[in-house]
Amino acid sequence: MPLFDNHGRPIDYLRLAVTDRCNLRCFYCMPAEGISYVPKEELLSYEEMERLLRILAKMGITKIRITGGEPFVRRNLIDFLGRLCKIPGIEEVHITTNGVLTTPYVEELQAMGIASVNLSLDTFDRQRFKKITRRDEFDRVLDCFHTLLAHNVPTKINTVVMEGKNTQDIVPLTELTRQHPVSVRFIEEMPFNGEGNHYPALVWTHQKILKVLKQHYPAMEKIADAPASTSYNYQIPGYQGTVGIIAAFSRTFCGTCNRIRLTAQGTLKTCLYDQGVLNIKNILRAGATDTEIREVFERTFRNRAKDGFEAEQRRGAQSVSESMSTIGG
Ligand code: SAM
Fold first, then answer.
1. Hey, whose CA ends up nearest to atom 21 of ligand 1?
2. Does the C-beta of 29 come closer than 6 Å to ligand 1?
3. Which pTM value belongs to this model?
């Protein structure tokens, strides 16, 4: 039985950040000098994460996304993934990665039945990649993309659309869907950059992204969106893949939100825009039983903000500015 929140929405999807560390420095996510990472002992251990996942799986979580920071920066991730895939009740394990360290593991990911990989790629141009990520890793990411396809791992490309940075990439990235069965998703930039808002107002809204796509591909058709999907999806006739637009800052999809987040330091978030609503690590380390942990989860899910705007309001003066690397996207 799925668990329902106080607004009648089922909660069956957990996004788990296994680290806050990253090997890229994407300017929209972190300052150039990086963020102060939490000490290792403050991160949830794999054993602690597994215990929480087993409890949540019994409560109705069926889908998990492993994210970070960059998940493959954490040692022994692959063993942990193998164990996750075997937890009773967990039907799908997905991964979001920047692809820099991922390629050597693709075969194992496929063998263990990883449901899909979201690869973050904001441009198809090496120089722009270096400028956006502040690292020269384009070739390794491209290699990861081709390796995922070669192993038939269902793959999505995540692209944050940014004024003056990569809007010229919208069409070339969409063209990937001509030959490849991938989903390319264009995401509105959010202010989770570790230093506060760096734009006065969002320029590349979901409407503006759609307008560019429609101008270039007048025959592009709307296709059905999966239940609780955050993306509005389209397909260009004759193309193998699909294109999605995620209104992450406009927050048009909160009404069907089925997801919760656990940060690497054990903070539960019931909305991307909240400040963290529960420190589950402290409860766990204080010796709580599985039943006590379950009860505290249930109480927290019954006090969920209606949408991202209400969650942001509840933060009071603490405006959204933390690095997405601490949350996991
Ligand atoms: N390191 C992994 C990766 O790059 O995919 C996983 C973590 S990363 C924080 C998850 C996703 O969040 C990436 O697709 C990234 O582009 C997105 N993201 C980070 N900061 C963002 C921002 N300010 N606005 C929109 N998306 C953002």
1. 29
2. yes
3. 0.96
